[in-house]
Design a protein that fits this description.
4 helices, mainly alpha, 0% strand, 71% helix, elongated
Length: 154
């Protein structure tokens, strides 16, 4: 059995976790678009205030920062800063064939921490709450990378 095959339960864990995180990144972008449309504000670029099918009454004030929109944009940026490292480290982790329980703990733990981070950010919890979930996810990716190095070097 090859390691990168759905017959490998460790790879199956990675596939599920990775697919969830890809959906998280993509849906966060759509959440930002929804918030821009709902509030008719928070547009990012000067060309966005040109008249069109959606923006029938453009106004320069639409370019002003709107926290409702910008919060979603910040969550998206945070996903883009963190999830790609998981996607790479997770695949490398599969390649060194860790114990199934360890892969499940690391990968599903990362997914849970990222969704908890989303909850904390979207509901305006304190920085300490948000940072706790960020730290769990970050340490998970760091552990997987160090584990890969440890196995590869020894």
């Amino acid at each position: 059995m090859t390691l990168l095959n759905l017959e490998n339960p460790i790879f199956e864990v990675y596939v599920i976790a990775a697919a969830l995180m890809v959906l998280k990144i993509m849906l966060q972008g759509w959440m930002t678009v929804y918030r821009m449309l709902k509030s008719n504000s928070g547009l990012a670029s000067p060309e966005d205030i040109q008249k069109g099918l959606i923006n029938k009454s453009p106004d320069p004030s639409q370019l002003e920062v709107n926290d409702y929109v910008d919060r979603s944009r910040r969550m998206h940026r945070n996903d883009l800063e963190n999830i790609p490292a998981f996607l790479i480290a997770g695949l490398l982790f599969v390649a060194v064939n860790p114990a199934l329980w360890l892969a499940q703990t690391m990968m599903f733990g990362f997914v849970a921490a990222r969704f908890a981070h989303f909850w904390a950010y979207s509901t305006k919890k304190t920085h300490e709450v948000r940072a706790t979930f960020y730290t769990i996810a970050s340490l998970t990716v760091i552990y997987m990378a160090v584990h890969v190095l440890w196995v590869a070097v020894l």
